[in-house]
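Hi, here's the filled form for the chain we discussed.

Project: internal
Contact: R.S.
Residues: 111
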Amino acid sequence: MGKLTYDSTLGVDFDDRVLAHLQLVIGAKLRRGESFYFSWRDDPAIGNGRSTLWMHPRIPLVFKYSGGRQPSINRAWVDALMSTANSPGGLVLVPEPEARNSVDPNGGHES
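And the returned structure, exactly as it came back:
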């Protein structure tokens, strides 16, 4: 389990694979100076509700991974996440779709 730390005060656990995809989408939005909401369903162990953060370029974020290897990236998932991030409701953690074209973080392509 990786961890997204928001404003040095709130830590949220996500699977490393999920966190890698979120980092790409959140990073792209914040690089462009865009603020947005980010929402996800909470783990049943903490109440099975949902949470939302206001993402702003001036709020510090830390992406901490538990594993040493970077997961392959599913471009279809990045596109789906970015589509929600560009909507009025903001980024919503949606399930991973079947990969059209995954990219190995070391530069190769995977099927």
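Let me know if anything looks off before we file it.
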